[in-house]
Amino acid sequence: PRYFALIPAAGVGARMAASGPKQYLKIGGKPMLRHAIDAFLFSELIAHTYVVVSADDPFIDSVVPSHGVTVLRCGGATRMESVQNGLAALAGTLRENDWVLVHDAARPGLDEALIEKLITSTGEHPVGGLLALPVVDTVKRSIAGEVGTVSREGMWLAQTPQMFRYRLLRDALAAATDSARDPRQVTDDASAVEALGLSPKLVEGHPRNMKVTMPGDVRLAEMYLATAQP
Ligand code: CTP
Ligand code: MG
């Protein structure tokens, strides 16, 4: 089987509230997006890496390496749209059964070991798989002032990469678009697949693969990167 990486990097980073898109913020001296790209470039299992950015992105050319990565300037209004547009652009390149590993540009802590763990553990699973972390905290749900505790049994926090076969992922995202669901609710790829009634495999990830979302996350990500990898 062939494995491809697709990195959606067309967000604006509203919650980070930096002067530019957060994927270009430096983590340990290197742009966040470049960390994500390098993890796939260093992995021998990945055939090619694609990055989705906005059509008018002025920063990407200075960040992307000269070999092994193709930039797709077709970002959309939501993460889901960016992934969909990227997959559509690869219609003549990828085969139905090729695996696509979709990974957030905002997760600079990914490394080859986690990529290989995901691919090896998912194997030839009929649906696909994703990295995720078991929930360790007590979970509360508060709706209109009514508070309850949700059992954390069986609860996981989704990370990326999330790997699915090209055809299944395209179909799942198309179905999610057709349904009345708000596309902003489809915050990862697996949820679109699950909506078809399919169960992907959860593969335990690592805290270092955190998503950099809020301003304080930058230093936390730098701390993980400075720590020797297990
Ligand atoms: N993303 C994308 N296209 C969008 C929105 C998000 O490709 N229209 C990408 C981001 O660049 C990021 C990943 O999806 O790599 C995860 O999204 P998130 O962490 O939410 O990033 P932003 O949307 O940029 O941040 P915010 O939601 O705070 O604006
Ligand atoms: Mg977002």
UniProtKB/TrEMBL annotation:
This protein's pathway:
Isoprenoid biosynthesis; isopentenyl diphosphate biosynthesis via DXP pathway; isopentenyl diphosphate from 1-deoxy-D-xylulose 5-phosphate: step 2/6
Pfam families linked to this entry: IspD (PF01128)
Query: Where is the site labelled Transition state stabilizer?
Result: 15, 22
Q: Which SUPFAM superfamilies match?
A: Nucleotide-diphospho-sugar transferases
- Give the GO molecular function terms: 2-C-methyl-D-erythritol 4-phosphate cytidylyltransferase activity
Site annotation (Positions MEP for the nucleophilic attack) points to 152, 211
Give the UniProt keywords, A-Z.
Isoprene biosynthesis, Nucleotidyltransferase, Transferase
Q: What is its EC number?
A: 2.7.7.60
Kindly state which reaction or reactions the protein catalyses. Answer: 2-C-methyl-D-erythritol 4-phosphate + CTP + H(+) = 4-CDP-2-C-methyl-D-erythritol + diphosphate
The entry's family comment says:
Belongs to the IspD/TarI cytidylyltransferase family. IspD subfamily.
Mind telling me what this protein is named?
2-C-methyl-D-erythritol 4-phosphate cytidylyltransferase
Per UniProt, what is the name of the gene that codes for the protein in this document? Answer: ispD
